[in-house]
Every structure is written in C-alpha cells, then in structure tokens.
Write a sequence for this structure.
C-alpha cells in the first residue's frame, strides 16, 4: 500500500484540543504533492498521527464559509 505523504504549507488555526492532546486543526495542505487544499482534521501531539478529516478546494471552502455565515447570522 502506498504511503500517504502530506505537507502542511500554512497553519491556519487550532479549532479545539482534547484532554488527550489531540488537536482539531484547519490547515492548507498538499497531499501526495497535489494542489493545495483546505484541510480540517485531528492530529495527535507532534502530528505523528492524523484522524479522518475533510479536504476542500478554495471554492468549496468559500461555499462553506458563506453557508456558515448565513446559519450563524440567522438567529434560529
């Protein structure tokens, strides 16, 4: 099985930290040398392991931002 490689090009934010030290982060990442994507996932301390996550293109990230802004501003 091919080893998956990633390079965190830009650290954007740590969204939360668990009691075990895992952090949920949003970063700009290149997976296997491919184009940069926005990436939300959990990492162990020192980023030795990572959990399942979601990757988004810039257009998808913009659509998510718009949807979240509308949801958070709706007052429901």
């Amino acid at each position: 099985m091919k080893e998956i490689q990633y390079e965190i090009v830009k650290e954007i934010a740590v969204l939360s930290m668990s009691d075990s030290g895992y952090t949920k982060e949003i970063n700009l990442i290149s997976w296997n040398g491919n184009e940069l994507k926005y990436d939300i996932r959990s990492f162990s301390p020192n980023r030795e392991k990572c959990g399942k996550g979601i990757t988004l293109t810039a257009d998808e990230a913009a659509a998510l931002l718009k949807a979240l802004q509308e949801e958070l501003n709706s007052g429901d």
